[in-house]
User: Fold this.
Amino acid sequence: MRRKRKRAQIQTLETVAVLFVFFLLISLSLIFYMSFSKGREAGKMAELSHEQAVQVAQVISNLPEIRATQQAIRGVNTFDLKQLEALELVLESDLELSKGIYQERFGTSTITVRQIFPSPKNWTIYDNPEPGAKFETPFFIPVALYNPLDIPGGNYSFGILEIVFYS
Amino acid sequence: MKKAQMEIMGMVVIVLILVVAMMFVLFFATQEKPGEGIKDFDDKLYSFNTLSAVLHTNVPFRSLQMQSVIEMCMWNDIWVGQAHTMSPCEYASAGIATMLSHSLSYIGQDYHFYVSTNTDPDFYKIDVKSSTDPALCAGDIQSATQPLTYAGGTMYIVLDICSKPRGEIS
Assistant:
């Protein structure tokens, strides 16, 4: 009788052990799936944010307000420095304009044109960061900056267009 | 059912669970990443745009275009007209290094800019790198080549940008 009870106890223990392993496997796969799907979602969000930054970059590089049309270098985004300075000034002083039509175009982003060579200089033409943004996606494009007043025929300097998109 | 049969059944169930879990993992791991098209297209244009912008830039000395300075460098390394204290090759290298270090290095990308000729393709008169590491740009690169004719023949201006996501600042 006593021996039979002992055997039954061992069998119960065996069942408990098998169940424990089974649930352990299930919970491990659940944890794996959760972390995987979380990482995937974050990656997707970052990708979306990057695409939005690219879209803003495309809009700004084709903006007639600053694009040098007469003396543009083939294949390179060429901005007219004088028009760039004028746009910076206008958007700084005219909040109605910067919060209206340009906010529609650029959304929550910061757009800076940096002249690198021959001398460093910056123009922040649009600045509308989103407070508490989850993603800050920077995007850069090489640009040529054309100064029509420098020498007869104008002068080109080298720079980058920096867009930081907040989402 | 005998005890041995029961245990075999248990083993089969465990193996089945493991197989299903493995299939699950494989399914997610081998899925293709969507949305790479824009990035790839954009990266290919990036090196060409950078190279073109560099070549068209006017340098402070005599407001010459960088392309003209490179041409003088390749043709005997002598200034045509008023001379600078630096040779054309030194002057061009310094200017290109400034431009690329403040643009490509600024966004955390390695690069290799070099100019060779059709007569000696392995000798670079202008050789600007982001680092002296011999393994620089050993992986994927986005390369842009601009062939140009000069007094001595044809020269090839090359910019290799080592592939790295452009949005990441290191």
Q: What stands out?
A: Residues 47-166 of chain A form one domain. The longest helix of chain A spans residues 2-61.
